Amino acid sequence: MSNRDGSARLRLFKALRRARWRVEMGKSGHWKIWNPRGLLITTPSSASDTNSLNALRRDLRKAGFPVGQRNTRARDAEHRKIPNQRTQP
Questions:
Q1: Does the predicted model carry a pTM greater than 0.70?
Q2: What angle do CA 75, 80, 86 make, to 5 degrees?
Q3: How far apart are CA 64 and CA 51, in angstroms?
């Protein structure tokens, strides 16, 4: 895991705790994350896969945490806007 992924993961854990999710380091060295309803997600503490942060975000979205959804839709809508080139008679 690169340092950038590590700091992004820690910022994500901080946001989870603010949202009242429980985040703990397990005895096995894996992070254990519980959502408020009790659903458990596990993730390794040092990922060897370069896609592990994206996989964690995917799992959190499936469990109900809004990861990266705040500005994405608005930004995509701006990119899809096509200027109206018709002139009004």
A1: no
A2: 135
A3: 20
